[in-house]
Amino acid sequence: MAHADAKQWDASLDTLEKTLRQDPDWARHQTLPGVIVQKVGRASTARLRRVSELIGVSPGIQGFPPATAKTAL
Length: 73
Known about the structure:
The protein has helices spanning 2-5, 9-22, 24-27, 32-39, 45-55. It is mainly alpha-helical. The longest helix has 14 residues, at 9-22. The two termini are 14 Å apart. The mean pLDDT is 77.
């Protein structure tokens, strides 16, 4: 979360993906991975999709929703 708050998108996704691969059951009981994915909206779509799949969050049929004033970083 600290990396995401500091807008260090790649480091945030690296840490999250490593954690999810080491302990996939952890993500099932946490909301933090989803919050990080929302904050990291500026990272590549491919990386976001990969991490989203690991935490079981679907970006939807038409991709991620567009940013709004409420959801923008």
